[in-house]
């Protein structure tokens, strides 16, 4: 009988001690959570080393780490959105303001020759604005998860050759002649024709605008490399060349929306391929990789 009384007392003392320690631990936890609420990034620690409290603190710390990560992502996305809006406002306002200025000059001038020149410049500015809006619309459409591309097995070289030919005048103005070497001109890929046309167009246009006007293109298997010489005044940041609105030239070239290579990346990935960029010396290289399993040779 005495044995059971002693055992009962010991058990009650143990339970009371455990309850008191647990109560103190909850107060300790509450104090830490209040500190976290003020913005502190402390790691929650336990004063009681039991499995139950260990699991509790482990889950709370994981929950807090997950919240911090989501908070960081949201803040980064918000900053990116603000930067995007600023870039859009600048890019759209520049040709619009310029065109309005020339239209005002036409209104105030009675010289027919000058008015015709002003009108031509104003129309060119409006054309720039239209191109920018079209690229912005296209990029927005491409980044939508619901946007899908229909693909078909078609020869790549004739498409590339036609796009390259459309830049003949610009290459002539730069006194440059592109160098093209396709290992297999009959190679076919499973692509969307309009998308691959735009990919080639944007890459070539980027080489002309931001390079020195030269271009070398090499195809081997499922890989196509586009190489051009970099302007010393504005070398690209290789980590951001495919970012939307990125421009190597801080003066923000009037003929560029900063979406050209971002559109390339979106199109290529939606066709099952990859695109990468690198710099070797003064050479800027874009490497286009089409899905190897979707390449067929005639």
Automatic annotation (TrEMBL):
Signal peptide: none annotated. Residues 87-294 form the Histidine kinase domain. SMART domains: HATPase_c, HisKA. Pfam families: HATPase_c (PF02518), HisKA (PF00512). One of its GO terms (cellular component) is plasma membrane. InterPro entries: HATPase_C_sf, HATPase_dom, His_kinase_dom, HisK_dim/P_dom, HisK_dim/P_sf, HssS/ArlS-like, Sig_transdc_His_kin-like_C. It is an enzyme of class 2 (transferase). One of its GO terms (molecular function) is ATP binding. Its EC number is 2.7.13.3. Coiled coil: none annotated. It is a multi-pass membrane protein. The keyword rRNA-binding does not apply. Keywords: ATP-binding, Cell membrane, Kinase, Membrane, Nucleotide-binding, Phosphoprotein, Transferase, Transmembrane, Transmembrane helix, Two-component regulatory system. It catalyses: ATP + protein L-histidine = ADP + protein N-phospho-L-histidine. This is histidine kinase. It comes from Coprobacillus cateniformis. The lineage of its organism: Bacteria, Bacillati, Bacillota, Erysipelotrichia, Erysipelotrichales.
